[in-house]
């Protein structure tokens, strides 16, 4: 499951699906993907105790105080709400923007729709490197069971005083983000950052059923992040695959509860939801004018505040009920837009689109006449309210769509021609990565020492026998031994006519050796201790990460290298990987603002730029790209990491994860039949019967388990548990 949804066997998917469907049905609030992850990873009891039965350390939870500044607390964060007496332990199940300028009944300034964190007004994004944004957090105060929950009377008293929570049982705080890029991260990325930093002790706790460190085989941050994002992706995929659940922007509820709401004739039931949809549809429709004269009208409606205007809704919007009501309202609007319009364009001439998915529970844009807008996905937040306040670009837009360009690799020569490993009286040994051009045209450069000897003994052109040894793999006879031609110049030379094996790829490290005086060159690859996944490629052999990033990009293979015919997502990935700042470990980063020009050679049409921006948003959400912060010097050159005294700029980066390729538990060893039916069981806690206690041996084993997870000391078995050491079971 650390490798994502597609890597999970069907049987395990079904088991996870059944549990998550039960969790969604049991919880009163819509279940976010991060909350569903918590239920699986930390152990949510469906019998009513919630997380109360799991041995989480409550003292490690971050403390939040109503009305004050707080760190980033994404959905899924487990927190302690400060009060004057007993603390409130809760899980954040929902959050939204709560800007003070948002109206009380859904009216919202246009510039606020899609505005970045820290924006100060129309067209003024602010220049703070640590922007602040007011947010409303909905805590589930009963997530830890009745033993850790306050009584209804106590909660009523806290709501009435409005010092620790507001009258609805929510927490409003000013969130301080470490950077503008952090404020733009999606919920899953933000939660992964939270678990790897603020809640790291909680994530790596040896008390959970299986610690993430055990799943990925270590505590290195890159491995932990890759495994965590894989687990979150698995949970998201399972929730989306359920026929019994309905998902809206990573929040999930049962279809049965939605159907019950539509049949309900009370407050915030089906009648009110239909009234809301009709009001949004008609919001921008102009009144009749003499001689048919009308002016364009745009109205922005925030769902959360708008729901408060329905009679009898006050009590239903308290606690987690607010999150459920906002979810149902957005789903109702989305269904009306998808079912009753053409890409948001209704018969009355208005176009309805989701403009901001965060502020006020979701801001919907109603515009008339709608046929002047560029068609697109009406449910993809475009932030037109904010962008309309920005100055127009000075460069004119092209009249026709452009074709993508193939820019040369700026750092092509920095990869070098190879590294000399040994040169003695017996042989010459050197090493170099396989390049894309060499793979396409069937050639490989020779080291200058070899060129000098061959030219002296065989002339400028000769036949050489090439012997290939692909470590751990069996090659075809025609590939293993080849007669190739050596073309030798005055100071350079190469082998031509090479038939590269199918498994060879750009960046694969090749070691070549030639005995002095001989006409045979032996080429071998080096096998890794275990297979790794790098981007979309899985390999078990040594490689150069820089070449792999640059030359194994979309549109590049052994048959050619071109951006023609690629879709927006592939164009984005290709451009970032080929044109971005390249680090030694293969990470590539590019200034987000110059991406369209880098793809097409100059500024593309508005529709092409919008398609690229939408693709970037999707790739960031799916963690194929990562946001970063860089700087630009006085000459316009970007730098990463950012340099002191230079203007900071947002970057997007391709960072190839290198998770180990782990054999699925209970699976079959691909190398033979010896491990069929054998299942690996990691070390884990087991509850003891009343009156029993763990042995000293198991106490010591648990301390050793903690040490391997990065916990050197301070860990003892919790009361009532013993430790089961890792083992295998099966025949």
Layout of secondary structure:
Blueprint: H1 10-26, E1 31-32, H2 33-43, E2 63-64, E3 69-70, E4 78-81, E5 88-97, E6 132-140, H3 152-161, E7 171-176, H4 180-184, H5 187-196, H6 200-203, H7 212-216, H8 221-241, E8 245-248, E9 251-254, H9 255-263, H10 270-282, E10 297-302, H11 303-307, H12 321-340, E11 351-356, E12 363-368, H13 384-387, E13 419-423, E14 427-433, H14 436-441, E15 443-445, H15 448-458, E16 461-469, H16 477-480, E17 481-488, E18 493-496, E19 509-515, E20 520-525, E21 527-534, E22 537-541, H17 545-551, E23 556-557, E24 560-561, H18 568-579, E25 581-582, E26 588-591, H19 595-600, H20 606-621, E27 626-632, E28 638-639, E29 647-654, E30 679-681, E31 684-687, H21 696-708, E32 721-724, E33 727-729
Helix pairs in contact: 1-8, 2-8, 5-8, 10-12, 18-20
Word description of this protein:
- The chain is of the alpha+beta class.
- It is built from 21 helices and 33 strands.
- Strand 25 (581-582) and strand 26 form a beta hairpin.
- Helix 1 (10-26) crosses helix 8.
- The two termini are 24 Å apart.
